[in-house]
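Before any further analysis, we paired sequence with structure tokens, yielding the entry below:
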Amino acid sequence: MKNGLLLRYALLALTLLSATVLSADQPNEIRLWPNGAPGSEGKAGPESVRVTENGERVVSKVHEPSITPYLPPKEKATGAAVIIAPGGGHRELWTDHEGHNVARYLSARGVAAFVLKYRLAREANSTYTVDDHALADMRRAIRLVRSRAPEWNINTSRVGVMGFSAGGELAALAGMRFDGGAKEAADAIERESSKPDFQALIYPGSSGRFAPAKDSPPAFIVCGYGDRPDISQGMAEVYLKFKQVGVPAELHIYASAGHGFGLRDNNAKAVGKWPARFEEWLADLGFLQKQ
């Protein structure tokens, strides 16, 4: 009994240590609305962070949406930027393999990356909605990045979005519902356009909602053959929708993958190389040309 208890304590200590090390390797967050997000008035309390057995952090109870920037050195910056929305069924956010791991990969290759923490519409007792709050967080993140483009060595015409699972739904919605900004707004951030210049949809949920138009940004789509039908088949249908309206799109369906693969160093399968395909796609479209 004592040995079992000691083992549990040891495992807990290792888990907490892993979380501490990961946090120490992470830049500071920037709140999207320094004075509080619209729709979050009166909501308080710390975020909840649980750590999985493999040391990955899963976040919930988000009331202060934010971005965490990963900026390449000025001499390596391509001018491209990506806002990354982790997945988690709108109940939680798997922020490491669908967020920070991807951001580190991109920033090492000259692409500024920003991990988005958005409000969760489907966690217990939530009063948030996907369309009114989570999407507002994504749109605000796009505007915020554009507003600080000179400081962060970003080209305002190279700001895109990437989303995984539920976050992929947000990325797709951002590519359908955008505006040019409120030019007379007192808040300078709100004067910026919320239209992404490109979108990366990584096994996104709710694919039946996707309705690209002629002015939609180009799309990079990735999923697994073994995923559920609305994704493994739905992404092929979504690709055809982009094709029909004349918007450039690229689709990768990996035969040996299912849902939630994200980016992990220990994934030796072909699907583990999808970020390289994304980088090639950005280069093909001219987003990585040095300014």
Q: What stands out?
A: Residues 1-24 have pLDDT under 50 and may be disordered.
